Amino acid sequence: MKKTSKPRDRQPVPDDLRAEYRFDYSKARPNRFAALMKGSVVTVVLDPDVASVFKTSEAVNSLLRSVISALPQEPGRAAKAG
After folding, report:
1. Residue 54: CB partners within 8 Å, gap ≥ 6?
2. What is the pLDDT of residues 13-26, one digit of tens each?
3. 43 lies in some domain
4. Is residue 10 part of a domain?
5. Is the full-model pTM beyond 0.70?
6. Cα–Cα distance between 36 and 20 in angstroms, integer?
7. 64 occurs within a structural domain
8. Whole-angstrom Cα distance, residue 8 to residue 33?
């Protein structure tokens, strides 16, 4: 027969969040990549083995568009021109 352990009293986890944070915006710099983000952009992180195959975002988008065009059309979903 297995022995069951007694439940231990758990100590509360300390809350490291402050009620308010003060940031030094004098050290802030403009986002140098902001100009590259045109319109609605979604960022996706690729696994290293996948990223080694695709060297540019255009290569990834091209393959994904070809896969999308090969998918069967769902009723009520209009095909988007890319």
Report:
1. 46, 60, 63
2. 667 878 888 888 99
3. yes
4. no
5. no
6. 33
7. yes
8. 50
Closest CA to 64 of 77, 53, 74: 53
The predicted pLDDT at position 13 comes to 67
CA-to-CA distance for 10 and 82, rounded, in angstroms? 56
Q: Could you give the CA distance from residue 32 to residue 36 in angstroms, rounded to a whole number?
A: 8
Rounded Cα distance, 64 and 42, in Å: 14
**Token duo for residue 80:** 């988007």
Q: Which domain holds residue 54?
A: 39-71
19 in a structural domain? no
Count of domains observed in the chain: 1
| Residue, of 21 and 53, whose pLDDT is higher | 53
CA gap 44, 23 in Å, rounded? 28
